[in-house]
What we know:
Layout: H1 2-19, E1 44-47, E2 53-57, E3 72-73, E4 80-82, E5 84-93, E6 97-102, E7 110-111, E8 113-114, E9 120-121, E10 129-132, H2 140-150, H3 160-175, E11 209-216, H4 220-227, E12 234-242, E13 253-262, E14 268-278, E15 287-292, E16 297-302, H5 308-311, E17 319-326, E18 329-339, E19 342-349, E20 354-359, H6 373-384, E21 398-400, E22 407-409, E23 431-442, E24 447-457, H7 462-481, E25 497-500, E26 505-508, H8 512-519, E27 522-523, E28 526-536, E29 547-553, E30 560-567, E31 572-580, E32 589-592, E33 607-617, E34 636-639, E35 647-648, E36 660-662, E37 668-673, E38 683-695, E39 701-711, E40 716-722, E41 735-736, E42 739-744, E43 751-758, E44 777-778, E45 784-787, E46 811-815, E47 820-824, E48 846-847, E49 850-854, E50 861-868, E51 881-884, E52 887-890, E53 905-908, E54 910-911, E55 917-918, H9 925-933, H10 937-941, E56 965-971, E57 1011-1017, E58 1026-1030, E59 1035-1036, H11 1038-1047, E60 1049-1051, E61 1055-1056, E62 1070-1073, E63 1082-1088, E64 1093-1099, E65 1107-1109, E66 1122-1130, E67 1133-1142
Parallel strand pairs: 47-50, 61-67
Antiparallel strand pairs: 1-2, 2-3, 3-4, 5-6, 5-14, 7-11, 8-9, 10-11, 11-12, 12-13, 13-24, 14-23, 15-16, 16-17, 17-24, 18-19, 20-23, 21-22, 25-26, 26-32, 27-28, 28-29, 28-33, 30-31, 33-34, 35-59, 36-58, 37-42, 38-39, 38-58, 39-40, 41-42, 43-57, 44-45, 45-56, 46-49, 46-57, 47-48, 49-50, 50-53, ...
Helix pairs in contact: 2-3
Amino acid sequence: xxxxxxxxxxxxxxxxxxxxxxxxxxxxxxxxxxxxxxxxxxxxxxxxxxxxxxxxxxxxxxxxxxxxxxxxxxxxxxxxxxxxxxxxxxxxxxxxxxxxxxxxxxxxxxxxxxxxxxxxxxxxxxxxxxxxxxxxxxxxxxxxxxxxxxxxxxxxxxxxxxxxxxxxxxxxxxxxxxxxxxxxxxxxxxxxxxxxxxxxxxxxxxxxxxxxxxxxxxxxxxxxxxxxxxxxxxxxxxxxxxxxxxxxxxxxxxxxxxxxxxxxxxxxxxxxxxxxxxxxxxxxxxxxxxxxxxxxxxxxxxxxxxxxxxxxxxxxxxxxxxxxxxxxxxxxxxxxxxxxxxxxxxxxxxxxxxxxxxxxxxxxxxxxxxxxxxxxxxxxxxxxxxxxxxxxxxxxxxxxxxxxxxxxxxxxxxxxxxxxxxxxxxxxxxxxxxxxxxxxxxxxxxxxxxxxxxxxxxxxxxxxxxxxxxxxxxxxxxxxxxxxxxxxxxxxxxxxxxxxxxxxxxxxxxxxxxxxxxxxxxxxxxxxxxxxxxxxxxxxxxxxxxxxxxxxxxxxxxxxxxxxxxxxxxxxxxxxxxxxxxxxxxxxxxxxxxxxxxxxxxxxxxxxxxxxxxxxxxxxxxxxxxxxxxxxxxxxxxxxxxxxxxxxxxxxxxxxxxxxxxxxxxxxxxxxxxxxxxxxxxxxxxxxxxxxxxxxxxxxxxxxxxxxxxxxxxxxxxxxxxxxxxxxxxxxxxxxxxxxxxxxxxxxxxxxxxxxxxxxxxxxxxxxxxxxxxxxxxxxxxxxxxxxxxxxxxxxxxxxxxxxxxxxxxxxxxxxxxxxxxxxxxxxxxxxxxxxxxxxxxxxxxxxxxxxxxxxxxxxxxxxxxxxxxxxxxxxxxxxxxxxxxxxxxxxxxxxxxxxxxxxxxxxxxxxxxxxxxxxxxxxxxxxxxxxxxxxxxxxxxxxxxxxxxxxxxxxxxxxxxxxxxxxxxxxxxxxxxxxxxxxxxxxxxxxxxxxxxxxxxxxxxxxxxxxxxxxxxxxxxxxxxxxxxxxxxxxxxxxxxxxxxxxxxxxxxxxxxxxxxxxxxxxxxxxxxxxxxxxxxxxxxxxxxxxxxxxxxxxxxxxxxxxxxxxxxxxxxxxxxxxxxxxxxxxxxxxxxxxxxxxxxxxxxx
Length: 1151
């Protein structure tokens, strides 16, 4: 009814407008006034990437749909809260000629720009443009709802062609973005020239979706039809943008920059800019408006507690707000203004100067009549902060009587409706509202920007919706104050493919390109954290209606994430959990086998909706309170069905493929089927590249031995480079052609055995034991190998046998049948006897073992230089004990058992002056001693074997710029002799036994040979390792086609009053199943038992195994109960089915 009212009004005034003798401005008579638009260009579009649907038309008709209905939809997909809005500009030319131009119910604007010669240019590239920065990765599922909104249809009713048209339009608009007309772009080099080849892209304010168009008041007829004025010569460029965060505060906002250029021939003085709106919060007859002067925010809310339009969605009435962020700029030395989203010194932005409102049919109704300058005078008074009367010399002030005294004001209704204080609206009705800025002068050639935002709010009551608007406005203000430089954003949305099976659904978002974009994202400190998987009851369901099936997040200690969220029932913000991580690791695929909405199974032929989102995390967000931002829920439509007609899968989900392996490595490769439908039947090869690097999906640089995957059948590269997993449970491995390939190799320096042998280099274990002793390592002779950490294989920064991962895949041997000169690990000085009075005082000290580094796969064996930490300063490697306060105290103790230990052992790789690795050579011991104890003057300057500044060993810094092994502790063993008495090393004192001839073992036996210890590391994959596997593609045959033809059936049969899949009592149907889905035609003719054709069902180029019959005849009337015959005709043959129908209203009731 409201729509009809304004159409009729427009029709009535047009004739009188053109009959009226309008003031003439001859400079505008040269215009061609017919609006033009290219035939293939969209006239309408909308910002809808967040939770607000906000329509625009190419000629500045704003917040109105193509079908002439309310065009501000909030929350998106529910009821409307804005019927129409726009921008008006008013002022004087020549000192006394009033103009008001812009767009209201009658549009005074036309599409087009004004060229250098003052001519209006229309058509061609002058149109409405809409872009998304993720346009290249969009999938049909991601724009399905977008397309439904564009074409004003249901999600289920949108066609594939319409979806493709939306995708194509995004691409067209991106590639033809009209920067030459003024559309904004990211000017990386600040030269004002759009250079896509240099990486410059369309967009503004780091937005996810942007609309741009240009309009002008240059059409004399259109301007006169508005308020009877002549054109000013305004060109207005409209830029609107939104953010893909429907669940966060940013998603409730549509930002708008209105750029106004005076391309006329005269200055516009005493000018005002007015943002006006006709807000209809659901039902248009019961609205209130108001203004918050502290926020420069005008808003509208429901005048009563309930609204039928919103109640239909189970919602309280929403609210709508307009924030006036930045007005026109004027010169102001010492101040700084915002223009073009940049700071401009020497200017200031005019604030909102007034607020006004009018009421349809009220005392102050719409300025009018249209086409008459009386309306211009009324609206200009509104712009100046007065009531809409036509007396410019004696305007009527707004009155605020809330204090008990009538006070003139330019901001009426500035009270707080939530608190119920101040000047408040009364008597709900159909309201309009406006907020203004001025006065200023818009000189010829001047440009002014006005930045505003349209904000939605939803609470659990009509008043808490107002609170929500104001809370969200605070977020919008924060982003504007930052000039949108650090806009927090959710990660790029995962690209999901759904594969249906007969009773399962596979969701797969493992594509390496999209995963890399999602998981490497770090936006304004918000780093990727995890994925959520949801089931939704329908394609239009909100996030509140969704059921979270699972969360797959990084294993990084971040689990439950809380946030300050506006909770409507409390009317305030409360800190509550917003994400529920489990630290179980990231997965990129999920098989769903149950209906999480009902708790029951998934039924063949049934439709289901799922969504996969990504979220990020910022522990200390600088701009907004949201610590986690999540991508939008994009419903993914799935209908369960078996393999294609005449086809069978050859593998099942979760089955492991056989792997062949050649090469010396000890790594593992598994190939697990994740999607039987995607198997190719090809052969694949895993190979390795050593000493290389790549950027992982997370954005982290990974180096080392990496693997690649080749499709040997097709000769293509499936995976270029990828990191090895630590074990086969790691899900951070790629999925290719329906197979997840997990390549794992032990981490370098992973000690898997510590074994004791007799007489190096014998391979005979002591006493024939095959025990492997890992920390704590109790050796055959009872010695315990330990370290300061008390555990092996810790991270590289921990105190471990190999503190800095230098062992790689090398083994280490300590042979107690030999000895070595020794050096202090931190100074590099050779150890000498430092015991006063000792007969060997000052002479070199030998450690009682030799140390070797055994390279893998038949590599060299290098003898290492030995050292220890001489903690008591006597120059000897010893197990130090002293009595303190009557108690024995040891310098070093093994953490594991608490047993006293020998001083920590360090092993060092030597290098020659050219940086080549060298071995400790007993034949050169005299040289080592001379260099250490009696160096020449030249040698003193650079010690050939000194450990210079604790950074390298030898003359050059090689690979190991720190001791090869650090802080190895040999725990002292105390055991009885054959007589049962304790010997050296007893708790009463003395030194520990060593694994050498003449010492005792733990059984009390005297050792007859010297022993050695071997520390064995796991051997990883190498460049010589090859793994191969072959998949088996789905199979099809003529026999299977014949078999599947016999499987065609109908369910339920008989139909007895209802169907378990029916969702309400009005929709009745049976389902024909197992139909050919190979894009051939399917026709089903249903006959009554006497041969009368009742209904004909057709599906051309069928891609669905299921076809429903709604139990109606060709006249759309319910069929009678009784038997029927269905003749199913397919390209592969015919099938005759008998079915019996019992309609609900004919069911016999038994009592």
